[in-house]
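Sat 14:20. Reprocessing the chain from the morning session after the first attempt stalled halfway. Input below, unchanged.
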Amino acid sequence: MTPRKRLLVGALALGLCLGAAPPARAADTAAMPGTRDIASLVQTHTGYPVKMSVYATGLNNPRGLKFGPDGYLYVAEGGRGGSHTTTAMDCTQVPEVGPYSGSYTGGRISRIDHHGHRITITNKFPSSQTSAQTGSLVSGVADVAFIGRTLYAITAGAGCSHGLKGTYNGIARVDTDGSIHWIANLSRYQKNHPVQNPEEEDFEPDGTWYSMVALHGELFALEPNHGELVKVSLDGKVRRVVDVSASQGHIVPTALAHHGQFFIGNLGTFPITAGSSKVLKLTRNGQLWPVADRLTTVLGIAFDRRGCMYVLEDTTGKDNLAPTPGTGKVVRIEPSGDRHAVVTGLVLPSAMTFGPDGALYVSNAGFGLPAGMGQVLRFDFDGWRH
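Finished this time. C-alpha cells:
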C-alpha cells in the first residue's frame, strides 16, 4: 500500500471510529457524534480562561475561511461529491486514489452571520471524491478571498481526472446572486507549466489547490500536489511566484499567509512523521527560508494583532501515522521563537483565520466525516482583556 493510500484509508477508518457512539434506537445502528460531541474534545492551554464556542454547524467538508467586508465569515466547502466518472480514455486518471467520481454542482460557499446562521452563497461549483476503497474523501471549493467587495473562489475538486469531464480547477468570481464567472483555468496552467520536481507516484493532473490570499488587487494561490505558488491577475493571467518543489522536493505545501511577506506551511508525506513539517518564509529575492520547524501536518497559518504566528496542525502524536481525529492542534509561535500548543483535541481541522474581533476561527471536522458534520469553532483568546 502506498503512503498516499494509507492516508486516505486511515482518514476514513479513523473518522468512522470517532463515530462509534452509544447505540441508537435501532440495536444495529451506531449514532454518529453530534456537533457538541466533536467540540467537547477540544481544550485550550493558555494559562487564562479562553471562551470557546461552536460558531457554525451543518457544513459540508469546510476548508478555507475569510471574513468579508460586511464583517461576516465566508466558508469554502468541499461539498458532497457525486457519481459522475471518467475513464482513462477520457483523460489521465489519478494513480492510487482514482477513479474519482463527482458532481458538476454541490461545491459550496456559505456565509455565517454574527449569530452563527448559515446562508448558501452558491452551490454551483464542482465537487468530487476519491474512490470508495480510499475513503470517498471530498474536495470542491478550497478557499475564498475578497478583492474590495468582490468574492473569489478557488477549486480543488474539478477536472476530468477528478471524474468531471469538461471542467477544470481554477479561480472564479462569485456575484451577489450566486452566479460564478471563471477568470483563470489553473488545470490548463499546470499542464502547460510543469514544476521541476513533480512526484510521479502521487500526481494529480488537475491539481489540488488549497490556499488563496488576495493582495494588491491580485490573487495568490498555493498548490500542494505539484508544489508551487502562483499569482493570478483579474484578467486571468497566471504567473509562477515560486516553484516549491525545485528547492524543497515533494513536501506538499498547503498553508499560505501574508504578513509583510508570504509564509508557507507544508502537510508532508504519509505515513506521518511527527515533527517533519515546517513553515517557510518567501524572501524578497524569491528564496524559501525556514522560520519554524518541528511541526506536523500543517494546514493553516494565521497572525494575530500582535504579530504572533499561529500554526494549525491536523494530526499530531508520534504514533499517529495517518489523519487521526482528536489530535489536531493550534500552536502559537511568539516573535521570540517560543512556541505553545494553545488548542488541542481538534478533529481533522482544515483551515483557520483571525476575525475582525481578534478571535481565532477554525474549520473543524474538515474532512473524513459525513457531509453536514463540519463546523467552525471560535476561540476568544483576548476575551479576558475585555
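The first strand starts at residue 43 and ends at 44.
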